[in-house]
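Give me the fold.
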Amino acid sequence: MNVIPLIDIAIQAAIKAGEKIMDVYTTVSFKIQYKADNTPVTLADRKAHNEIMKLLKPTHLPVLSEEGVHISYEERKDWDMFWLVDPLDGTKEFIKRNDEFTVNIALIYKNKPIAGVIYAPVTRELYVGIPDIGAWKVTNPTAMCTLQSLQLSRGRLPKKINSEEYIVAVSRSHINSETEDYIQVLRVKHGSVKVISLGSSLKICRVAEGTAAIYPKLGLTMEWDTAAGHAIAKAAGKNIYLQDMKTELTYNKEDLHNPHFIVI
C-alpha cells in the first residue's frame, strides 16, 4: 500500500487549514459557541474543517472529523481505511491565545494509524510520520511541502536530547489528581523529574521528538485527539499504550472516547 501520495495531500490540507485558523486567530476578537457537550467551538474550527474536507475529497476516502457530522457506528464499522481529523485540536488554548493548538490529520487502516500529520499554525512546526518509514519535524514548511522534501531535510525524529531530568509532558488545561499521583510515582522511580505543560497534541509530538520522555493521559480524550500523534510517535520508535503498557490504542471504536493511555 502506497500511502505517500495520500500523506502529501494531508500535509497540504494541514498547512492550508492552519492558514484559515490564523486568519481568525489574528483578528481582534472572535465569537465562541458551545456544542451540546459544552465544549467550545469557534469560526476557526469550522473554517479549518471545511478546508480539510475540500482538500481530502480527491482521495475518495471517508472522513471522520470532530467538526463534521458524526457518522453512526453502523456506517463506519466496515471502513477499512479512512481519515480521522481534528481541524483545531486545543480550542481552549486557541481561546486563551497561548498558541498551543494544532491541526491533526491521521490515516487509519484496520483500526490502526498508518500515517499522521500535525501542524502548529502559530509556530509553523510540522510533524509527519509513517510507521516503518519514519518521522520528521520541520519549521516553516513551504506551500509545496511533501514527504520527499521532509526526507531530504535534517528533521528526522527522534532527536538526541541530553537531559539528566526525566521529562513528563502533561495537559495544560486538563491535569487532574490521577495525573498528579502518577507523576509522584515517576518521581520515586526516576528521581529528578521535570514537568512541562502543553496544549493539544503537542504533548505527543514532544515524546516523538525526544524532548519529553513520557506523556500520561489519565483523563478524557477522543480518537481524533490522538490518532495523528500516534502515527508520528510510532514512526519515531515510540507508541501509545493503555495503562497496562502492553495494549496499543485502537481507533474507530463504537465509543469514540479513548481509554486512559501512556505515550512513551
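The CA atoms of residues 86 and 104 lie 5 Å apart.
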